[in-house]
Amino acid sequence: MLFRITKVGVAKAVNLEDYVSAMPAYEGVLSDKEIVAVLSWIKSEWPAEIRARHDQINQQAQQRAP
Fold first, then answer.
1. Which long-range contacts (CB under 8 A, 24 or more apart) does 12-16 make?
2. Alpha-carbon torsion (10, 12, 13, 18), positive or negative
3. CA 5 to chain centre
4. Residue 49: pLDDT band by 50, 70, 90 thresholds?
5. Contact 46, 54 (CB under 8 A)
6. What pTM, to 2 d.p., does this model score?
7. Residue 18: which pLDDT band, with cuts at 50, 70 and 90?
8. What is the number of H-type helices and E-type strands within the chain?
């Protein structure tokens, strides 16, 4: 979800056409690889327990994905 929000913006990411956000979309500005690199750096700055919880959430979401 963080990748999608960063790439296409909040409104498109959550399908809310009228949602207004100050966060820009980076599609066409950063490549997918660059977006992943930025998000990875941000995550590396999180406390260890938050990173572990985020990893757990991602793993659970991947297991539920079709």
1. none
2. positive
3. 5
4. very high
5. yes
6. 0.77
7. confident
8. 4, 0
